[in-house]
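Fold this sequence, please.
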Amino acid sequence: MIEDEEIIDGILKKDKYALTKLINKYGTIIHNTIFFILKDDYESINECEDDVLMCLWKNVDCFSKEKGNFKWWIVAIAKNKALTYKKRSSKSNNNVDIDNLKIKLNYDIEADYLKGEKKKQVINLIKDNLNKEDSEIFIRRYFMDNSTREIAKSMNVTSITVYNRLSRGRRKLKKILKEQNINFE
């Protein structure tokens, strides 16, 4: 602790050698604390380290020996500065230069239209070839993503009944598709 007191007194007197002692003693801890938060953003890590040292240089008079340990005070400052840098970095990453923005559309309108048409054909096939209850079960399960439990509850039947109707309906529809030589893939 005597060395910490020498560092603190030296920095209070604006002795640059005291800052060198601080860097030699606590530089690795400062770096590791910042690196843990900022990860691989080396430019920000270096800037943040400089800011931490500047903050320590300017505010060492705020440290109270009675209230805490000098090492943990430095770690707290490094951590807070790194978190500030991280917030700033995430905010700047959200800004987009719309003048130079090129938009790539990963949406194929034609494929989406064809998909919708196939969906309509399948629904019509289901409605035309299954009874009303089985059609409802099929549509709710495969097009509305309802669970078998939800379907069973709303139709006042057991889950096993829903599974059986789905199984029989699939067999029936496969047979019809095969007979009519229809392929939906």
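The chain has a mean pLDDT of 83. The longest helix spans residues 70-94.
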